[in-house]
């Protein structure tokens, strides 16, 4: 089968993935499923993997490369292990990004992302920038009738990550309060729709790219800002003292230290994008009672909920499609923000 493989890390991103013919995977454990990839979303984590940001965590022995990235996968079941009962070949599925064990205590609490034995196809083992990849039965969710893998693939990670943050935020928001979304890319545009579906709050969307701001307006953002030098004051003016919730989908390039300054007294920030370092004087934390927290991907059940919102037409993924052969163009376009929403690779 064809796969796009990473051979080198490079902080400057001057590397290309190599399109190669590799062995098609086979079932090696009773709970495994092989998925024929219908589409795989391109993620900022993929850029960070190439840059070497994940090297220590994912490749501590330096023996991983070459390998196949791609962790936002949807497609059709191709083959199943002997213990698999809930899906059969031909079923259309979206794949939760983590192969969880189902046995450990966090798994039994439904906290998939805390699984003590989780495996992450696309991060440290072969993923979906290929014609086929392997995951397990616990990770797959059958798609409803008429839902195409292509239309939902990035929801496997970008989607649930945004949805989880929006769901947590919605518990703190009521009509009359405001949430700020920093970065209206692949995640931000899903968070915006999710907040609108879950909460009666107002939403301020901030992005430097005019096309992203236009998308935010289309999706129902109440106020759209361009993230200029006065953006903190603008948010304070529009909200009368700051937002109840600020969700940061950038988390680097200086944005990480704008986020908490936009929160009102007693407000909450959710850091979702990463790469930078948050620096907050303790006096500001205390005087304003700001809560600063992270939000990590999402649970299987959250992906199920998101697929329900998608089936009802309330949350849709905006994407730009590329063939597997065009993956290096897609990576470059992504890095240079040449498309709005998500880039999707179709093998
Ligand atoms: Zn991702
Ligand atoms: Zn587990």
Automatic annotation (TrEMBL):
PROSITE patterns: ADH_ZINC
Keywords, comma-separated and alphabetical: Metal-binding, Oxidoreductase, Zinc
A Pfam entry, by short name: ADH_zinc_N
InterPro entries with a match to the protein in the record: ADH-like_C (IPR013149), ADH-like_N (IPR013154), ADH_Zn_CS (IPR002328), ER (IPR020843), GroES-like_sf (IPR011032), NAD(P)-bd_dom_sf (IPR036291)
Domain Enoyl reductase (ER): residue ranges: 14-345
Names of the cofactor(s): Zn(2+)
Domain of life: Bacteria
SUPFAM superfamilies assigned to the protein according to its UniProt record, in alphabetical order: GroES-like, NAD(P)-binding Rossmann-fold domains
Enzyme Commission number: 1.1.1.1
Leader peptide range in chain numbering: none
GO molecular function, one term: alcohol dehydrogenase (NAD+) activity
Family: Belongs to the zinc-containing alcohol dehydrogenase family.
Protein name per UniProt: alcohol dehydrogenase
The organism of origin for this protein: Acuticoccus sediminis
